[in-house]
Amino acid sequence: MPSAPDEARAAFEHLRDHVRLACVPGIGARLRKLLLERFDTPAGVFAACPDELRAVGRIGPKLSKLIPTLATDPTADDVIALCVKHAVEIVLEGSAGYPPLLSRIDDPPGLLFVRGAILPCDALAVAVVGARHATPYGLRIAEQLGGSLARAGYTVVSGLARGIDAAAHRGAIAAGGRTVGVLGSGVLNVYPPEHEELAAEVVRHGALISEAPPLSEPFGGAFPQRNRIVSGMSLGTIVVQASERSGALITARLAGEQGREVFAVPGPIDCRMSRGCHALIRDGAKLVQGVDDVLEEFGPLFETATTPEGTPVESAAELQLGSVERSVLDCVGRGSVTVDDILETVSLAPSQVLSTLSVLEMRRLVRRLPGNRIERM
Hints:
Elements: H1 4-22, H2 29-39, H3 42-47, H4 50-54, H5 61-69, H6 75-85, E1 88-92, E2 111-116, E3 125-129, H7 136-151, E4 155-158, H8 164-174, E5 179-182, H9 196-204, E6 206-210, H10 222-232, E7 236-239, H11 247-257, E8 261-264, H12 275-282, E9 286-287, H13 291-295, E10 300-306, E11 312-315, H14 323-332, E12 336-338, H15 339-345, H16 350-362, E13 366-369, E14 373-376
Parallel strand pairs: 3-4, 3-7, 4-5, 5-6, 7-8, 8-9
Antiparallel strand pairs: 1-2, 2-6, 10-11, 12-14, 13-14
Helix pairs in contact: 1-6, 7-8, 10-11, 14-16
């Protein structure tokens, strides 16, 4: 049986191999997935010869020659040491701390660098994105939505960019809620640089995350890649303002492809920053006039999540329940029960139980069955 030091050494080497693979130029999430499907582990990738690597789709001659030369490259050790020094956590796909919603997309990041903490309650997240050059109207609405979502119990996810993103983060922070900023640069190289102070606030109220090594510079192609993480971490994405060519529309498209809800805030018809949102609404996105338009759209979760208070929830709608509604819902449990069963369990008048069940039914949390029975949806 391996000793504790042996297990710790094996775990470190496994982590180092994943970090080493993440540091190889030209290997993104999709190519990493192809390599691991062929060679099983990062160590197997680095042990492969160029001919074996070229047999993998999208691996060219240059990259196939480069990968084996990096098998003992010290860059991964330097990155890990930097993360330890600056309290940056490295979260591998498949580990307990990896965002469960993000693991469900087609091309999840193989690892995340995290400043702050990703908590179980962050599975109840909504993305708020939009134009960098937002109008005062857009900034006000983004901040209001960020605050309202946070007060309703949701984590607000955005990209820490200028304009709408920053306003949404600030709204969540001002409301005392949680927020996650997804960067197109490294988490120790905040972009834009004037958001260093905001980034520090985000870390205190949630997390900054990136799939790029901590000191990575921002570049154009990193931001569309970043957008899939923003939408992938979230139950739905709200676009507040966007021109016809806005990157926020990429995030909305990705959300739709990932099977998540898409929302858009309307604006003045003569404002260029309204055109992208109006196009989304025309194409089927949910029109948002307030936070209730968002909250009422969410049905059962992919899997049970946990609120910051530790309460398990199976539907995002449970976040809006009062104490009476919660007590009646808890009586329903996993199977079906009769109304009489509920009346025997809770100390409420029959009329109050019946009216509460009607509310729960309207919120799509329960349904009525023949024989005066109730079950969870």
